[in-house]
Predict the structure of ABC transporter permease.
Amino acid sequence: MFRTALRNVLAHKARLLMTVLAVTLGVAFVSGTLVFTDTMSKALSGQSAKSYDGIAVSVTSWGPSRTEDGVKEGEPGISQQTLEKVRAVKGVDTVSGRVSGFAGVGDENGKLIGSGWANKGSNFVPVKDGKDPRYTFTDGTGPAKDDQIALDKESAAKGGYKTGDKVRVATNGPVKEFTLTGVFTTEDGAVNAGGSLVLFDTKVAQELYLQPGFYDELAVAAKAGTSADQLLTDIKPLLDTKHTKAQTGKALAAQQAKDIEKQMSSFSTMLLAFAGISLFVGVFLIYNTFTMLVAQRTKELALLRAVGAKRGQVMRSVLAEALVIGATSAAIGLAAGIGLAVGMRSLMDSLDAKIPDGALVIAPGTVVAALLIGVVVTTLAALLPAWRTGRIAPVAAMGSAHLPATAKSLVVRNVLGSLISLAGIGVVFLGVSMGGDGRMVIGAGAGLMLIGMIVLLPLLSRPVIGAVRPLLQKVFGVPGKLAAQNAVRNPRRTAVTAASLAIGLTLVTTLSVLGITMGTAVDRMSTDKLKADYKVSMAGGMGGLDKSVAETLAKAPGIKAVSPQADGYFKVGDSFRSASGVNPATIGELLNIEVTSGSLASLGKGEAAVAESTAKKQNLTVGSTLQVQFEDGQKGALRIGAVYKDLEGLLSPYVLDNKVLSAHTDQQNVREVYVNATAGDSKAGQQAVIDALGKNPAMTVATQQDMRNEMGGIINTMLNIMYGLLGMALIISVLGVVNTLAMSVFERTQEIGMLRAIGLDRARVKNMIRLESVVISLFGAVLGMGIGLFLAWAVGTTLTKSVPNYELILPYGRLGVFLLLAAVVGVLAAMWPARSAARLNMLTAIKTE
């Protein structure tokens, strides 16, 4: 029986090739993801370990903290005195005190080199022979004076800088000019991530990032023969353990390796989810393929039963075929996945998202996973068709029956599908009633709905396709009528074929509607709520601005109105409340704040404005008084002077004059600064702001259109990624349509011959097959899009409170494109089956049993 199974595999190579391809794609996606993430993890972990070479003990400061009363505890960092104590410990060879923060360098056009978040500044610490062990200089030396810096080799090359050049460096405040004294290479993670690294003299770095005489970190090297663990034991008693953490370099490298693995695991999980969708869709194709093959070989299998084969033997022979196909697909998929991982790595390198050098990692677990997935998925999908082979009676050898489904089985299926679908819809509505907490519940309901839809598809296919039959007949004549009839001739097969397309388009439609709606909401917020000509913020969202930015802009020529949007908080009872610090004199010119009671002028008197939703929750009105405790522990009374309609994303629930808020904090985070220029929203106005900032490459001056484009770009990029990942599932869906049509042509060989004999020419035969394919594709597409729209509405209802101006938008143009693409898929999938049908010999086809 096993030899028979192998012969059957070889006898149906063309048909099984599509199954192999479907499984191969899914396995390639899984194995490629695992190989890529394993390679990334090992490379990044190796890089992290290199950066701790020579470090026996690392001491890190968490900075000062505040008690419940707001009293500040602890020093800004690790003091010079602590460093000297550590240096005096027996067995310590050298101690390097480090500070770090954001620093950006512009190229010759003033554009920031690097990606913002990976642009870093630190201090040069010569420990022996004037050298810093973390950096290898390829030209020049490290900085030794206040006006000197060193720059990493790649950033220097990108900016066209050489030693001796003047380089403008930006932090979160005004731009400063330094002389470049050296260029170096390093294993620093920021540089290897595609960012830049600027080295300052220690005194300058401390003034920029911390406080003179303090460090963020101590890197301790041990003398020969001294163990890191012993050194750690001796150093710990010298530290303020509440605000610092000491650990060996080896332990720190291991911890970072774990963190990297965790981060890569999240990335891997997302990719594997889409691989799972592809494999799930592939199950329908495999199931259909084996169902067709069993039907095609009814007489052969019945003859085997007639000559003595038992039901179990026949069933196992079909499963053996699936096993062979699964193993073959898994092997090919694993090889393709390795190639995919290499391609992904090259793609990231080409996009300047640098990955450290390292060998490709093909873990044993990846190989096992690929083989298991290929074999298990294929075997499970073939299980039901294999079971049906055991039901073929020996007497079937006398005919060519294809074992149509019984009425009883379809009734059971329809009842079961209806119950599952109704349960799914009920769970979705339950999630909607839960608001923002119901998204996971909606996801569970969506899963039930899709399962119910798959079960119910045979029932749905007849009335839905029947409804379009008159139109097909009227437009395309006899081929149209025959195509509609053929599409519902075997409702099970049509359902399985349409299901794969329906699943893909359910996900695509849901994501598209939500993405476009979110983009429109953001656009409305920019248009309706933001009156400022420009928003100034750090490039790449890298932290907050220095408070001097707003002060500098307010004094600059060509600037009409300026207000910071500074973050802060205060405590009311046991609850912390977030607040925004603004300029009371200008904020009304920059934001469209709709006051429902009171006046914004009250901000200038030291009073507070509160958002309408918060006022209702806290039972606050104009004239109410809040007893508060500020960040520094000082207590006071805030009178509510205005209530305004919520501006989530632009203002916190409480708004104060920034002079009041900043007086109670040491280092305030200014998220952004809103600006109106005398020249308005124009090139001249934008240039006036840029000039006032000293052409700072680390800051962006965004117009309202820039803000819309930025958010729209993020949403479109995310959608395009999702479309790309779901494309695999849609490709497998196309293969499923091809398979179904091929089987349809095989089953109707005699019928097609008769149609040709009574006058249906080759062109109309091709047209009939194409239309059948388009009908099945559009049936799946319409069903998937309908469910997708319902799920988009459900998820959208959970976002209305957290996203201002949220209103569901139906992108009719994009939905029309999806339908058109489904039709194109139908036409393309029908090319080979239609050609095969048209080329059938008329007489041979008529004689076929």
Remarks:
- Residues 543-697 form a domain with the Cathepsin D, subunit A; domain 1 fold (CATH 2.40.70).
- The longest strand covers residues 559-572.
- The chain has four domains: 1-56+248-400, 57-247, 461-529+704-849, 543-697.
